[in-house]
Design brief:
binds pyridoxal-5'-phosphate; 16 strands; seven-stranded mixed sheet
């Protein structure tokens, strides 16, 4: 398809077809396409100033103040590191290494942190990096709480957080082969890894381990941030405070590229000039981002995301019983995933089914994303201004597409 325009939670292609957007620009369009309040702020900004490197200006200040009012204390430093999420991850990793004087990093299986060399090193998908290895040395991957496919063969509810225990073991055993890391980087809910929602306490237990071992905890909120999961930031579900937070995507309001790394004041040890760049800080992104944050708070998008997400889960959850090809339906707020399998007992992944469902959805006017370890997870990241009515129509198209895919097997 080629896109002509987009509004709210719909996208129109160049042939005039309208699609319900459950893709949301890969989790960028939280406040909705063409949000009038954000457009107004962006247009006013274009008339005033469009480039300032990272030199202070009123819009930068407004965004900093808005972010600081939303971030938990003592996270009170924000750093605009470059246009994309990957840039925020690079900053976070450099900052952790600079402050600890250590090099190793721990990341999780299923992680996605971006495509620049450092961020790709922290991402687990071999499909993205196999041909480019070795990337950064001393990046170690440990299992995430992917309970549907537990690396330790445990079942949710009865397990003793074997994955967390394993992380602890890796850090404590002098023969684990892993040097003391500068930081552990984690997504509070894994996005590209397949919308993997860890059980309560997974993130808080990682927090405890990091604190106990004097290791920094970086939480990547690039996809989960800004009301996506029913809270301003997904780590809030577990009541923790990370040391470093990475943000991007919805931060730019309407897709203006900007990223930010926020951290505790005590980590602000590097002198000016340690991380520079021509597009460090995007004035349009500042203005649109500040307007978007005001809009999110004013409209209480976090609550809407939580409530509508619950409703959508209730419409879709029945597929786990009714369909032979749906292994699991999961979600938090408006971040939902449906995992397809060939066989429910063996859980053999069914990437071709996911592709087929995506194709059917597209033909019937619904945009969705595919992700997951095996590219077998249909993913929804709609704009958070999605109405109940559009959500219902989109869910019906999806359910229909699943039935079609099942029939064609
Ligand atoms: C959790 C997470 N981190 C980092 C990134 C990389 O962001 P970008 O594509 O803007 O570089 C993404 C992108 O999908 C992401 O989902």
């Amino acid at each position: 398809m080629a896109i002509r325009r987009a509004k709210g939670a719909t996208v129109e292609d160049v042939d005039g077809n309208i699609y319900i957007d459950f893709f949301g620009g890969a989790g960028v369009m939280n406040v909705g396409h063409s949000n009038p309040e954000v457009i107004e702020a962006a247009v006013a900004q274009i008339r005033e100033l469009t480039h300032s490197l990272d030199v202070p200006n009123p819009s930068r200040r407004e965004l900093v103040e808005a972010l600081l009012s939303l971030l938990p204390q003592p996270i009170n430093r924000v750093f605009f590191g470059g246009p994309t999420g990957s840039d925020a991850v690079e900053v976070a990793m450099k900052l952790a290494k600079y402050n600890t004087g250590r090099y190793p990093m721990v990341a999780f299986e299923g992680a996605y942190h971006g495509m620049s060399s450092g961020a790709l090193s922290l991402s687990s998908g071999l499909g993205f990096k196999e041909e480019f290895l070795p990337l950064l040395p001393e990046v170690h991957f440990v299992p995430y709480a992917y309970c549907y496919r537990c690396a330790f063969g445990e079942e949710p509810g009865t397990c003793g957080f074997e994955c967390v225990k394993y992380l602890n073991h890796v850090l404590e055993d002098p023969h684990s082969g892993v040097g003391k890391p500068a930081a552990v980087i984690v997504e509070a809910i894994q996005g590209e890894g397949g919308t993997i929602i860890p059980p309560d306490q997974f993130i808080s237990r990682i927090r405890e381990i990091c604190t106990a071992h004097g290791i920094l905890m970086i939480v990547d909120e690039i996809q989960t941030g800004f009301c996506r999961t029913g809270k301003m930031f997904a780590f809030e579900h577990d009541g923790i405070i990370p040391d470093i937070i990475t943000m991007s995507k919805a931060l730019g309001g309407l897709g203006f590229p900007i990223s930010c790394t926020a951290y505790k004041e005590e980590l602000d040890t590097w002198p000016p000039g340690k991380h520079i760049g021509t597009f460090r800080g995007n004035v349009l992104g500042y203005a649109a981002g500040a307007a978007a944050l005001h809009f999110m708070v004013k409209e209480n998008l976090a609550a809407h995301s939580l409530n509508l997400g619950h409703l959508m889960l209730s419409w879709l959850k029945g597929m786990e019983q009714d369909s032979e090809i749906v292994g699991e339906v999961r979600g938090k707020g408006l971040m939902l995933g449906i995992e397809f399998v060939k066989d429910k007992a063996t859980k053999e992944p069914a990437p071709e089914v996911a592709k087929n469902v995506q194709f059917h959805c597209h033909r019937k006017g619904l945009l969705i994303e595919i992700g997951g370890h095996y590219l077998n997870v249909a993913r929804f990241l709609p704009p958070l201004i999605l109405t109940d009515e559009l959500a219902k129509r989109g869910a019906e198209i999806f359910l229909d597409a699943v039935r079609e895919a099942e029939k064609s097997l």
